[in-house]
UniProtKB/TrEMBL annotation, chains A, B:
Record key words, sorted: DNA-binding
Superkingdom of the organism of origin: Bacteria
Signal sequence annotation: none
Location of the DNA-binding region in this protein: 38-57
Originating organism: Streptomyces rhizosphaericus
Domain HTH tetR-type: 16-75
This protein's record includes keyword DNA-binding: yes
Designated name of the protein: TetR family transcriptional regulator
Length: 218, 218
DNA sequence: ACGTGCTTGTTACCTGCGGTAACAGCAGTC
DNA sequence: GACTGCTGTTACCGCAGGTAACAAGCACGT
């Protein structure tokens, strides 16, 4: 015999557990087959059939969003740690954060690919039926907003600083992302080199360099 | 009656023309319905049926790549023009280029969305079946490479400058893209403001700002 | 003991997509 | 007139996402 609500609690608990198991199975499949993995394949990996997946996650977008959230949270946590770690100066802090991101995508490129691939994942809000934008991976937006608040909190930017911080947050994240994506594919140099060059860019080295002789001005 | 090769020439000409018409129809549909437009819908818009599309473009990826190429070329040309326009100094040149890009995505957000949406478009090379990366829109890579060569050609970066230029090219393009994407959606400020803030970032203002009082260091 | 309610699981189906035969008509060429 | 090469069609395949409709197990109230 059991106390009043214990059955529902138990059910809810096992439901949560089931959900976790399903997510892990989905994870395995997605990491093996890429983001185009079919619901059938995922269900088979979990040892069940499609409708159960749909009962738990609504639709494919729901599943993928749940999946993405876990990885996003993990990545975000490690980035925050890098951002909060003791550092001698700002440049060192920025380098550490960039390096943490790049190390993460280097270590688990398939996770990275899944997170960045905006292919559907559903998630469109019903507002403005045709929309615009909606392209950027949710991860990128989240990272941008996150960095924006950190900058706004910690850096003195004068009046209108919040707006500047938001622009910079999204801009820096985009820089990191695009450079990382390109680097991951072409591997033109060591990670440390990439970090160094990017930080140089943020530190204004472009504005300090001379024009090349014989070239049209830049 | 016609001269020797005139028939083939004629056919080729009308085929090219047909292709152009089909592309224009596809353009209309994609801009109306978004990148998920079905081949049936496109065929219907063109007043024909599916197999003809497939004869002309092979598969959906082929059609989309042909479509993307036109818009990409156009955007690239206008960016090159901005980059080559007379300017007083480097900062002005960078601002003009950023502004040109942002004006373009502001003016035709649906085109922009289509170009950036990496959702398939086919185009995967047969190499490395599961790959990695492959996410970034072709447009972004192309812009990054393009900017890289311009920087390498025109800016004196010392030994290893080519590597630096490539990193910067992709980094700057990524910054522009992410900030533009966010701005296009949220419209937090005027275009000129965004350009100004981004250029400040590239000019190293982040490295010059003070820590905020009472905040952990940054 | 018996039905009730809830969850888990199934099979079997619908719709719509990308993609592909297979065939019909209609130039111009030999 | 037969042949070729194009444009166009209808009708289909396979597979994806998604959804009934129904069966079984388990804890409850009576």
């Amino acid at each position: 015999m059991r106390t009043g609500t214990s059955q529902r609690d138990d059910q809810r608990q096992t439901a949560q557990q089931r959900r976790k198991e399903l997510l892990e199975a989905a994870d395995r499949v997605v990491l093996r087959d890429g983001p185009e993995a079919s619901m059938n394949a995922i269900a088979a990996e979990a040892g069940i059939t499609k409708p159960i997946l749909y009962r738990h996650f609504g639709d494919k977008g729901g599943l993928y969003r749940a999946l993405a959230k876990r990885h996003t949270d993990a990545l975000l946590a490690s980035l925050r740690a890098a951002l909060d770690a003791p550092a001698d100066d700002r440049r060192q802090r920025v380098e550490a954060t960039l390096d943490t991101y790049l190390a993460a995508i280097e270590a688990r490129p398939q996770v990275y690919r899944f997170l960045m691939h905006p292919a559907d994942h559903g998630q469109q809000e019903p507002e403005q039926s045709f929309d615009v934008g909606h392209h950027s991976a949710p991860l990128l937006r989240r990272l941008g907003e996150e960095l924006a608040t950190v900058i706004a909190e910690r850096v003195e930017l004068g009046p209108g600083g919040d707006e500047v911080a938001r622009v910079w947050g999204h801009g820096i994240v985009g820089m990191m992302h695009a450079a990382g994506d390109w680097w991951l594919r072409d591997r033109p140099c060591a990670r440390g080199q990439l970090v160094h060059h990017l930080t140089d860019l943020l530190w204004g080295r472009l504005s300090l360099a001379d024009d090349r002789v014989g070239a049209p001005g830049f």
